[in-house]
Every structure is written in structure tokens, then in C-alpha cells.
Amino acid sequence: MASGRPAADGSPRAGAVPSARRHRLLRLAVLGGGALLLLLLSPLLGTVPIPPLTVLDLFLNHLSGGFLFSDPCAGLGITATKCTAYGEIVWEARVPEVLLAVFAGASLGMAGGTLQGVFRNPLADPFLLGLSSGGTLGAAVVLVLHIGETEEYLFLPLFAFVGACATGLAILAVARGRFGSIETLLLVGVALSNLLSAILTLFLLYNPISSQQVYFWLLGGLGEATWIGDGVALGVLLVAGTLLALLGRDLNLLQLGHDVAQTAGVDSRRVRIDLILLASILTAVAVAFTGIIGFVGLVSPHVVRRLIGTDYRLVLPGSAAAGAGFLLIARDLSLVIFPTSVLPIGIFTAFAGVPFFLYLLYRSRAASPMGVAG
Amino acid sequence: MTLNPSPPPAARTVPIAWFAVALLVVAGVAVAATAGYYALRPTSTPGSIALTDDLGRNVTVPYDPSRVVVLSPSIVDTMYRLGLRSHIVGVDCYAPALGGISEDYSPDQVALWGLNSSMCVEIGPTFDFESLLNQTPQLVLASTIVSVESVEQITTTYHIPVVMLQPPTVNGVLVDVSMIGRIFGVESQANALNAQLSTELASAANAVGSLESFPTVLVTYDVDQNGYWTFGPDTFGQSLIELSGAANIAAAANGTFAYPELSGEQVLAADPAYLVYATGYGLTESTYANAPFWHDLTAVNDGNLTGIDSNWITEPDPTMILSGLPALIAAFHPST
Questions:
Q1: For a FRET experiment, which of A60, A215, A326, A373 has its CA 20 to 30 Å from that of B251?
Q2: Which positions in chain B touch A342 (Cβ < 8 Å)?
Q3: Whole-number Å distance between alpha carbons of A315 and A109
């Protein structure tokens, strides 16, 4: 350990000078600004070609309740019906989709950052640990057993929440006897993930009609975005994200080991439970509305640690910004390469993420990606 | 110096109760929002028709809509036969960048029905709602190749009525013909088409009615290294096979799955007397010849093997009755 006892603020880098912290904050701000810029530009891309200025006019027209840009399609030479359709495309399809990318990406990024910190393992993410499979299985239960029928729209996200959170609790319960062992938790998560995948496959085979819907969760996508879904996703992100941010200092201390954290007054067992459950909730909200989208929870925290160090008070919000930006880039990349099709977003998170991830690993092979905790 | 850990203060952790509170908040928001959304759904208006579709959904649709998106080849077939082609502004297709309209419709269907890529509404691998909205439809007619969740989104978010047409039996095709006739005000054409279909069904019943026993058959529409995909019980395919005077080996071999894949061992054990395979979409006899135990089957070795256009036997529509049923009877009862 380089710095001995932790600093009073819990930062692993006890000797960091104020200017270095300012630099890290500046980089965090740049990361957030980049995600915001992508958020503003992404609605310009879609499978139906609409001129960028028309997209902006339609958006402002809807946002102002028709007060601004009363004729947003002027000069396009299209019918009023078509213009109305364009308005629905922008307001009811594209904007909710882009916002969902932001909320789901931020949730997955934050969940990944949290899990990597808790398990002190750079490979830990919601998918490896089975939280995503648990959420997908929860959704599959609704579809295969026809729970709710007409209220399926409501039950799907709720059961995904239950599935992911139950998986997080199961990991903790199974490993409770040997809770001090990070390896045990990780292995239990991997084992549960495989079990849940097997059950899910059985569901797919058993009910081919529902399989089409379950298939959506397996492939992952943003196409089912709605304002309601976005509202729920934002609400969960704000609640769970804020709680996680408050636990950033404790997560820093966990990096120094159980004894040191205990000495500093942190109940490491309780904090781990809280962190894993919060990560489960964030994973669940992403899975409920987007299905399984890989790589976001894995890559985003790595990128952030490279940029702003290992202080989890910054890593967690940074991972949220990076996750949001990453998912937006994947969405936009898919539409640039295949402008007329909506392909599973997971393909493009891998396309965008793997080369960059390998580059990061190549650049940092001499140093541990987990900083002092590695 | 020895470290002496002090007891951890409880106030520093986030209590479990927070999680329950968070979940309750989310559930509450979701319930309220969904309830509000359902309350805003459109109700019946003058010039509209209330009906119950094949999935038991109560739907209110505009009378004789001029712009309709049809998300199933079988429904296009019915509408074309009823003279309603001009009402169709969009049809289902697979990712335009990968397969497009040719993935869901054969070249013959594209030519006969005058379809083109500008009508493409992408339903897979992910439903593209932009391509649907771009067609400005007043009504969507769909089968279960579209997920229930996508249907819910079309109706609740975009307020476009969706009628699901997925007849579970051959007779269900006639019900759907009547329903489409009612929606578009072409009841007389629908009755004429149903009379034609009824005549064909009666003819089939007459042809196989005197048989003392039905031969065992396998009707497969795809194969892979694991076995043969076919129609299970309670499907329109099973109904079609029964009407053609044959006993489906899948009905007994696997009673759990609607569209099961029979293993090579199961097919060999059942050893059907006749075998029909679906052609088109790249499927030929040589494709099926790669299936397990193909060359060991009695039907193959005795030449009781017939390829039939996939569109005739895999889509529950008038063509299935008018062309598929006679073709199956000819395949299973060559002497009649």
C-alpha cells in the first residue's frame, strides 16, 4: 500500500494535491459535457431521414405545446399528415429512445463501477454476476406465464426489478457464511448467472410465442422506449444514484481492505450489501427497458478510472456519464453504419467497446487497472 | 502498535429500508403512469367498428381506413383477394440493411402484390417504430410475428389501433376473412371468398372422408443438425394436416410445444409413410437431405416425398386452403 492509512475523505490517494483534484474534477466535467453534447445531437439520427433543422423545430414545437414553430415542416413539401407523423417520430420515438440510452447507460455504468469497486475485480459487472440474467428472467416469467395480460406493460419492468434484486440478494445469501471472501461472492454470482441463463433458455424453448418477446431482452435494444419508461428509469437512477454517490467514500475505504475500512468506522459487510443491492436496482431498470446490453457496465468504469483516478466519489458519477455517452455512441454508430435498420444495440456496444477496451488495456498493461485496490 | 477496530457506526451505511422505499416509489410511479396512459386510450367514435380479434382483444378501429399497415404475408393475401391492395401502405420486413422485404415475402408475392422496399416496416430483429409512423397508418393489421409488447406500444404510445389476426385453425381463416370484410365494408366480397374456401374444404372432406385410416406424415418447414421443425398440436398446421386426411407424427411425438423441433431419432422411430417439406426462401430438397436420418426414412426411400411452396402451408390464409390443402391431399393420397 503506497499511502498507509486512508485520508480523512476516504480517498485512496491520500497525498493528492488540490490542483490534481481540480484536474480530475475538470475531466469529470468534460466527460459529462461530452455526454450532454451527444444527447443533444443524437435525435438528429434515425431510420427515417428528417432534416436536422426540422427535427429541432419539431422538438421545440412539441416542447412548447405548439407555441413555437407552428409550421415546423415548412419548405419540405410534405402533407400535414406526414408532418404530424414526423412530429410523432421525433417526440414519441427518437427523443424517448435517446433519453433511455442516457438513463440506461448511466445506470449500467454506475452499476458496473460499483460492482468493480465492491469485488475489487476489474471484470465484475452486472452481466458476469447474473444481475442482468435475473432481470431478464423476471421479464420472461411475465411473458411465459401471461401475468397481468393487458397490464403486461406495467408488470414487465416490475418483475425485472424483482428478478435482478432477487439475484443480488441470492448472491449475498448463498455467500453469507463466508462473506469476508470476495472470491466467494464473485463465484456465486457467476454460478447463479449460468443457472439463470439455463432457466431462461428453457423458457424460450417452452413458449415460442413469448420467445419472440424474450428474444428482445436477450438482444437488447432501445426501440421500446416511451416517456413513461424514461420517467421510471430516471426516477430510479436519481434515487439509487444519489444513494450510491453518498457511499462513494465508504467504497474508497473498502478498496483498502476489510480491516482498514473497519478501523475507519465502516461496517464493510453492511456497506457491501447496500452497494450490491443498489447496483442490482440500477441494473434492473436498465434491463427492464432495454434488455441485456453488454459491455457498458464493464468498459465505462475503466475509462473513468483512466481519466480521473480511483476516487469512487468521482468514479461513480463519471461512470454514469461515460455509460450514457457510450450507449449513445453505440446507438449513433449503428444508425450511421446501417441508416435504415434498427439492429440490436449490443452488437454496437461490442463494436465500439472492444477495440477501445483493448487499447486501454494495452496502454495500461504496466499498471493495475484497479489502482491501489487492484 | 496494534490496531483495535472500533465498532462501526450504523449511521454511515444506507439502511435496507431505503431499497424498499426506492422500489415502492418506482412501483407507485409506474402504476400511476400506466393507469393514466390506459385512461387516455381512445374510445369508440362515430365511423368506427368495435370488434374482438383472434387474441381476444377488444379493439375499436376506423371504418374502411385508407392507410393500413399489414404485418403478415397471410393478411396481405386475404386483403389482395378482397380487392383491398390499394389500402396497404406498409408491410412487415426484416432489417432493410440485412434482408429487407425479401426476407418476409417471396419474389412471387412481391411481384403479385406489387410490394416494394418503400413500404418496409421493420419488425425484426428490433421493431422500428419510426418506419411504422412514417407510413402514417390509420390501422395496423398484424399476426403474432409482432410481439405483444410492440403491439401495446403501437396502441398506447402512438394511438394506432392494432387488430391481431392469428387463426388457430383452418376454419379460423374464414373468420378472419369476414372480420376484414367488415372493417373495410366489403362484406359481399368476403362472403364470396368464404364460399370459395368452404367449397374447397368440402371437396377435401369428400376426398378423404371415405378413408379407413390416415397415413402417418411429417410436414417440415425447416431442418438443422438437431432435427426437423414441424407443426405441433393446437396449431393451424395440425388442423391443415388433419383436413388433408393424414396423421401428424408430431401430435403424438411431442405434445408440449406448438411448433416443436423433432429430433432425428423421434422422426426415425415414428418413420412417417409420407413426408412433405416446404420450399422457397432458399430451402430445397438438398437442404432437407442434411437432416439427421433423412436417408434412413421409409418415406424418402419409397419416394413418398413432396416439396410444396412454403407460402402455401406455413401461412394461415386463403392460399393455404385453396392451394396448400389440395397439394397436401395429392401428396398424402396419390391415388385419389
A1: A215
A2: 95, 122, 126-128
A3: 10
Backbone angles phi and psi of B227, in degrees to 5: 160, -150
pLDDT in tens, B229-282: 999 888 899 999 999 999 999 986 555 677 888 999 999 999 999 999 999 988
Residues in chain B with pLDDT values less than 50: 1-14, 31-32, 34-44
B158 in the same domain as B58: yes
B42: in domain: no
CATH number of the domain residue B54 falls in? 3.40.50.1980
Asked if residue A12 lies in contact with residue A252, where contact means CB atoms within 8 angstroms, the answer is yes
For residue B150, give its domain range: 48-166
Give the cell for residue A30. Answer: 468534460
Q: Where are the beta strands (DSSP E) in B143-183?
A: 162-164
For A253-301, the pLDDT digits (tens) are 988 887 888 888 888 888 988 998 899 889 988 988 888 888 899 999 9
Would you say residue B317 lies in a domain?
A: yes
- At A325-362, the pLDDT tens digits run 999 999 999 999 988 888 888 888 888 778 877 877 77
Question: Rounded to a whole number, what is the distance in Å from the CA of A236 to chain B's nearest CA?
Answer: 6
- pLDDT digit string, tens, across residues A32-57: 999 999 999 999 999 999 999 999 99
Question: Minimal Cα distance from B16: which residue of A?
Answer: A274
- In chain A the domains, ranked by start, together with CATH numbers, are 37-373 (1.10.3470.10)
Mutate: best of B157, B231, B259, B262, partner A, most A CBs <10 A: B157
DSSP assignment string, B230-277: E--TTSHHHHHHHHTT-EEHHHHH-SS-SS-EEEHHHHHHH--SEEEE
Mutate to test the interface with B, among A212, A246, A268 (most CBs of B within 10 A): A212
Q: Does A82 touch chain B (CB under 8 A)?
A: yes
Chain-chain contact of A344 with B98 (C-beta, under 8 angstroms): no
Does any domain span residue B304? yes
